[in-house]
Specification:
Elements (H helix, E strand, L loop, with lengths): L1 H12 L14 E6 L6 H17 L2 E6 L6 H8 L7 E5 L1 H10 L10 E11 L1 E5 L7 H13 L5 E4 L5 H13 L4 E4 L3 H9 L5 E4 L3 H8 L3 E6 L26 E9 L4 H15 L2 H11 L10 H21 L3
Length: about 325
């Protein structure tokens, strides 16, 4: 039964942008995903949106608004009333790092209030097929040689100030070699060009689709940015297995947020609905299978989630400073 429901849930996640995910004549919520369709954050958002509509007994409509590393989508949400009907799928890239890159025009962490975290995703270094490096130490050697020859390796991000960008700069610093930054609008666009050999590296979370593409040789996973090998990628060495990137770890939390000033009763309703969603074994299984992301532990209140958010703001602010933002 769980397997059948999981397949139904996954099918619903793949419905085109703007599709109604749950039928109810009462209220319509809009979930703004600030990246293009097909990327991991899009898949993750659609997985929870299906069950969120059921928990709220309302319509939940997904809208993809990519651009500027997710800031365009965030700004759109901030133009709406603080009534809880417009929900933002956010990460530290928009909520913390973007403001460090552009202090005048970017959003601030305090512009949003968290409803609930979805989960924290592990990161790996993707490399185009044919790149002459199979592990972190070989990558460091190649990066230095390429830079010396006047053709530095390139790395992709989903926008200036995003975590991909920050980690790319940190990778460059740790390897002692300059890298060329190539920003994109979304992860799906990056993966397309990575598979096409038009960009060398990408530091990101991964999906079941990415794993399948790596297995078929479309690109490679060079290093898992974790102390030990990751369960889903047992053949990919961890950063601590190298001398060049030892101690270089990265992961990304993703959550649902609303505009600051949203009334407390609405926040509580949304929080409890998401806690119910993340308690569902089918949602947990689908998140792990499709996005390699363990579902966040259901939080009993907005206060608990807010404390997590504050901790995350501090952590990624420090990361941004270390990367020179």
């Amino acid at each position: 039964m769980h397997k059948v429901r999981s397949l139904v849930l996954l099918f619903a996640c793949l419905v085109v942008s703007g599709a109604v995910l749950a039928q109810s004549p009462s209220r319509t919520f809009r979930l703004v995903i600030p990246f293009s369709a097909g990327g991991q954050l899009d898949v993750m958002g659609r997985i929870v949106a299906v069950s969120l509509g059921e928990a709220l007994q309302a319509n939940v409509v997904v809208e993809n608004l990519p651009g500027a590393g997710g800031v365009i989508g965030a700004r759109r949400v901030l133009k709406e009333p603080a009534d809880g009907l417009t929900i933002f799928e956010g990460t530290p890239s928009q909520l913390v790092l973007a403001g460090m890159v552009n202090k005048e025009n970017a959003i601030k962490s305090t512009d949003f209030v968290p409803i609930h975290m979805i989960g924290t995703s592990p990161y790996v270094i993707f490399a185009r097929s044919g790149l002459q490096a199979k592990n972190a130490d070989e990558l460091a050697t190649l990066a230095k040689e390429s830079a010396k020859d006047g053709v530095p390796l390139s790395y992709a991000s989903v926008g200036v100030g995003t975590l991909n960008h920050v980690l790319g700069e940190e990778l460059s610093r740790r390897m002692g070699a300059p890298l060329l930054h190539v920003p994109y609008k979304g992860g799906a666009d990056v993966v397309r060009d990575l598979a096409g050999g038009r960009v060398d590296l990408f530091i990101n979370m991964y999906t079941a689709q990415h794993m399948s593409m790596a297995e078929s040789g479309r690109f490679n996973f060079i290093t898992a940015l974790s102390p030990e090998r990751q369960d889903r990628l047992p053949n990919v060495p961890s950063s601590d297995e190298s001398s060049s990137l030892k101690g270089f770890y990265a992961s990304l939390w993703t959550g649902l947020f609303v505009k600051a000033g949203t009334p407390a009763p609405i926040l509580a309703e949304l929080n409890q609905a998401m806690a119910k969603v993340l308690s569902d074994p089918v949602v947990q299984k689908t998140l792990m299978e499709q996005t390699a992301t363990p579902a966040a532990k259901p939080a009993p209140s907005v206060d608990v989630v807010s404390a997590e958010y504050e901790k995350g703001i501090q952590e990624f602010s420090e990361l941004g400073k270390s990367a020179g933002l």
